[in-house]
From TrEMBL:
Cofactor(s) the protein requires to work: NAD(+)
Gene Ontology MF terms: NAD+ binding; UDP-glucuronate decarboxylase activity
NAD in keyword set: yes
Residue span, NAD-dependent epimerase/dehydratase domain: 41-283
GO CC terms in record: cytoplasm
Keywords: Decarboxylase, Lyase, NAD
Pfam families in the cross-refs: Epimerase
Protein name, UniProt field: NAD-dependent epimerase/dehydratase family protein
Organism expressing this protein natively: Trinickia fusca
GO biological process entries: D-xylose metabolic process
Lineage: Bacteria, Pseudomonadati, Pseudomonadota, Betaproteobacteria, Burkholderiales
């Protein structure tokens, strides 16, 4: 990654270069015009989602001469500069040292604020501490947006706010009133995001800010953290290391995956012209079981990496329905004319090519 980010735009590696060109061309012209000359404040800019937003904004800034200025909140500017010097040293970006849970003394003038700190709570996290960090961080970022005179606020939330998906529901729509279980201490992330959505709407109305909420589902693409405990990252990591692709959970579990370049187009469009106070699912509506995903990853590696399903990943019985986590995306399609541009097979192939190139560096 460092070698890629350190290169000037003309030398960006092939996969990222093609993806950024795609984002610039696919995102509608009126989105870029609405961003022209704007000052942005972004949290989570050094993570998976945030890196893609920064890559897209910096690329478009150069291509269309937008005059966008971006302040990126990071706990360790030095670490981000080491990881991504091309982004960190771009004249449109300024790194601000700080934590989203301690923003009371931070000022500045911003037109747009993006709260994209979306790290999923690990199983070892203290549920209360995790919940409090999510909610308090959102509150503080909203207060900063108010002090800064921001006009719009994009909150990157999660499909986890819906809780467990009914097995007879093909996709969860934005008006579905499900919620995470109050009996599950592991649901701190979903509860934190759900309460934060309420805060976003309530405080934004008080402060005169137009909020838009993006509920992210599963993602795949370059920058995917391979040490994350998710199926796609685990399977790709296994294959890259020459290990059998191992399915440890129920292989009947149903997920769907949106490619990160598609995600960037959707998020930028929501930031610029999503309905104020509206919530939109951001994900693929094309379901796939975890067992099928493992096989697809194996096929994309060409040599047919073996797939190993552990005993715990058995098919289960009919009275134990498989878990499902798939969005309904009709709203974002009809309201904003967006679509799923990249098939899962193409998304997996591009992601794998990215990491193979990285291995070769």
């Amino acid at each position: 990654m460092t070698a890629l980010i350190n290169a000037p735009p003309s030398q960006v590696r092939r996969i990222l270069h093609e993806d950024l060109q795609f984002i610039a061309q696919t995102t509608s012209e009126d989105v870029w015009e609405r961003l022209r000359g704007r000052r942005l404040f972004i949290t989570g800019g050094t993570g998976f989602v945030g890196c893609w937003l920064l890559e897209a904004l910096v690329w478009a800034n150069h291509k269309f001469e937008l005059g966008v200025h971006i302040d990126v909140l990071t706990r360790r500017p030095d670490a981000f500069t080491l990881k991504a010097p091309r982004l960190a040293n771009d004249p449109s970006i300024r790194l601000i040292q700080g934590d989203m849970n301690d923003l009371a003394s931070m000022g500045g003038q911003y037109d747009l604020v993006v709260h994209a700190a979306t790290d999923v709570v690990s199983p070892s996290s203290d549920p209360y501490v995790a919940f409090d960090a999510i909610v308090n961080g959102t509150s503080q970022v909203l207060d900063l947006a108010s002090r800064a005179g921001a006009q719009r606020f994009l909150y990157v939330s999660s499909g986890a706010v819906y809780g467990r998906q009914p097995t007879d529901m093909p996709g969860m729509a934005e008006n579905y009133c499900g919620a995470p279980s109050i009996d599950d201490p592991r649901a701190a992330y979903g509860h934190g995001k759900r309460v934060s959505e309420w805060l976003v709407r309530s405080l934004a109305r008080r402060h005169g800010i137009e909020p838009v909420i993006a509920r992210l589902f599963a993602l795949v693409g370059p920058y995917l953290p391979l040490d994350a405990r998710f199926a796609a990252s685990t399977f790709i990591s296994d294959a890259l290391a020459g290990r059998p692709i191992t399915v440890t959970g129920d292989r009947r579990t149903v997920r769907s995956y949106i490619y990160c370049a598609d995600m960037a187009v959707w998020l930028l469009t929501l930031l610029a012209k999503g309905e104020a106070f509206g919530a939109y699912n951001v994900g693929s509506d094309q379901p796939i079981t975890i067992g099928e995903l493992a096989s697809r990853v194996s096929e994309r590696f060409g040599s047919g990496m073996p797939v190993n399903c552990l005993a715990s990943s058995s098919t289960g019985s009919d009275d134990e329905p498989a878990e499902r986590y798939v969005p309904d995306t009709q709203k974002i399609r009809s309201d904003l004319g967006l679509q799923l541009y990249t098939s899962l097979d193409t998304a997996l192939a591009r992601t794998i090519s990215w990491f193979r190139e990285e291995q070769a560096l």
